[in-house]
Write a structure and sequence with these properties.
It contains 5 helices and 3 strands, in the order αααβααββ. By secondary structure, it is mainly α.
Length: 103
């Protein structure tokens, strides 16, 4: 995240005090952009596996149990033995969840 202002920009030339309103507005704007940007990044999509796929279960058994085709991306990320290596999981609601959170 790059902030488009520096400390001297934030100082009021006449009093030497910080303009709190300006600082707050700028920081909130930057944080909003920063918070939404990762979810639009294709690196997140490339390291995401659907939430319904259990780990350490053979791929054929997963497809048979859930009656759904496992995406090739999930197989590529987890590999032949279905070992969880993803950074994010995609829930049924379409939300991205950090893979470190147990569901």
């Amino acid at each position: 995240m790059t902030i488009p202002f520096t400390l001297p920009d934030l100082l009021d030339n006449s009093s030497g005090e910080m303009d709190v309103q300006t600082v707050t507005e700028e920081i909130i704007g930057e944080l909003s952009e920063w918070a939404s940007a990762p979810w639009q990044d294709e690196r997140v999509v490339e390291s995401t596996v659907p939430d319904w796929i259990p780990p350490a279960m053979p791929w054929k058994q997963v497809e048979k149990k859930f009656k759904a085709k496992v995406p090739a991306r999930a197989k590529k990320i987890r590999g032949k033995l279905n070992v969880p290596r993803e950074r994010f999981r995609l829930t049924e609601e379409g939300e991205y969840v950090w893979a470190g959170i147990q569901t």
